[in-house]
Amino acid sequence: MTGKGLTILGIETSCDETAAAVVRGLPPGPGEILSNVVFSQTEAHAPYGGVVPEIASRAHLEILDGIIGRALDDAGLTLADLDGIAATAGPGLIGGVMVGLTTAKGLALAANKPLLAVNHLKGHALTARMTHGADFPFLLLLVSGGHCQLLGVGGADDFRLYGSTIDDAVGEAFDKAAKILGLPYPGGPAVEAAARSGNGRAIDLPRPLVTGHNARPGADFSFSGLKTALRLAVQQQPDLSVEDAAASFQAAVIDILADRTAAAMEMFRRDFRHAAQNVLVVAGGVAANQAIGAALDRLAGVEGFAVKIPPPRLCTDNAAMIAWAGLEMLAQNETAQPFNQMLSQALAVSPRARWPLASAPEAETGNPLRR
Ligand code: KG4
Ligand code: ZN
User: Fold this and answer.
1) What is the DSSP letter of 183?
2) Does residue 370 lie in a domain region?
3) What pLDDT does 45 receive?
4) How many domains does the chain have?
5) Same domain, 233 and 297
6) Is 8 in the pocket of ligand 1 (CB under 6 A)?
7) Which residue among 144, 192, 196 has the greatest number of ligand 1 atoms within 8 angstroms of its CB, and so is best to mutate?
8) Is residue 271 domain-shared with residue 208, that is, in the same domain?
9) Is the CB–ligand 1 distance for residue 10 below 6 Å?
10) 290 and 319 share a domain?
11) What's the rounded Cα separation, in Å, for the pair 62 and 56?
């Protein structure tokens, strides 16, 4: 450890990004990103309209060593300069997670450095500490291709689940909507761009769980009915423009996210009565959506929450967030556990396809291939 804090190499391979980064700092942050290399396999998966697990793990295997080398070079460091090596141990596509975690184990053993086995979701959850130095507690809206959750975060290991999706994740819904509209993969940015010149009231789409026959209070999400309604509207109205359809879809998503986040704000206030400040952190790939960000800003203004959204390149999958989560784990553990014990415990960690941050009141559903 230097005067500037802990220096950690992070490795991320749980989906279709092969990434390595070096981050330096100490909790509560902010941290310094010394390098951040992300290789997106999007092109390899685009013909299939989604991530193909077998293609992903092969690609990770082929390029990960080079990506790690570049991350160290960009930072001007060698393995010997590090305080620890962090890798995503789940949840995610199991083949990819195995590649990253096994590589990290090898490096940690060879360099005799602590290995931190990181939950990918914890990476997203703690990013706002690395970027903004966000203090605990905060309310987290985690919106990605595999996850859609609202959590109260009371500490680096204190996650309280307020709501989650009962079917598709919101990013997955964007990707499926894009497919229906003939837009390219990944769908989120394409739908957002099309929506900019469309009319959000052009078609009347449902807001599942929020309004209508299955409405229920609380902070759970549902998007599959919305996607089906979009498909039907497109089939039944040949004159409907892609822009109007995209804008109507995005307007429905925004209403759903705002309603459920408002409910979670209530739960957060109850759980953390003595919080110095009410803060909403938005993380995950969908947090890059500016219309969603603006709507959440408006809601937060009304509800007395400050909003913290990491920049888009740190909202989508990256290894800086994994390095930072590892850094928080190491900072917590360093004094508590002898190094040998930490390393042997970490070497025994197995990759996990599923690994919830907080246990759900009802089991998490959704596509088991995605997170
Ligand atoms: O966090 P992420 O990079 O990977 C996962 O962990 O899933 O999120 C990727 C997801 C994709 O579904 C993508 O369509 C969505 O985030 N996304 C967006 C936007 N940018 C990425 N969704 C809506 N609007 C965007 N601008
Ligand atoms: Zn992610």
Assistant:
1) P
2) no
3) 75
4) 2
5) yes
6) no
7) 144
8) yes
9) no
10) no
11) 10
pLDDT of residue 3: 63
Domain shared by 283 and 151, yes or no: yes
Same domain, 321 and 303: no
Ligand 1 atom with minimal separation from the 17 CA:
3
Q: What is the DSSP letter of 339?
A: H
- Nearest listed ligand to the Cα of residue 370: 1
Is the whole model's pTM more than 0.85, yes or no? yes
> Is residue 187 in contact with ligand 1, taking CB distance under 6 Å?
yes
Per-run averaged pLDDT (10 residues), the chain, 371 residues: 84 92 97 94 75 78 93 98 96 92 94 93 95 97 92 95 96 95 92 98 96 92 96 96 98 98 98 94 94 97 96 93 97 67 74 79 36 37
Q: List C-alpha distances in Å: 367 to 30, 58, 249, 353.
A: 34, 21, 21, 11
Are 260 and 115 within one domain? Answer: no
220 shares a domain with 271: yes
Mutate to test the pocket of ligand 1, among 286, 296, 317 (most ligand atoms within 8 A of CB): 286
Q: Identify the domain containing residue 194 by its residue range.
A: 136-311
User: For the domain that residue 87 is a member of, what is the CATH number?
Assistant: 3.30.420.40
With CA atoms as reference, report the closest residue to 150 among 10, 271, 323: 271
Ligand nearest to the CA of 325: 2
Query: What local confidence, expressed as pLDDT, does residue 228 receive?
Result: 97
On whether residue 284 sits in a domain, the answer given is yes
**CA angle, residues 169, 95, 104, in degrees to nearest 5:** 105
Rounded CA gap, 198 and 216, in Å? 30
For residue 312, the ligand 1 atom closest to its alpha carbon is 20
Whether the CB of 174 sits within 6 Å of ligand 1: yes
Atom of ligand 1 nearest to the CA of 169: 12
Identify whether residues 147 and 178 lie together within a single domain.
yes
* DSSP per-residue letters across 90-123: ESS-HHHHHHHHHHHHHHHHHHT--EEEEEHHHH
Ligand 1, closest atom to CA 120?
6
Would residue 369 count as lying in a domain?
no
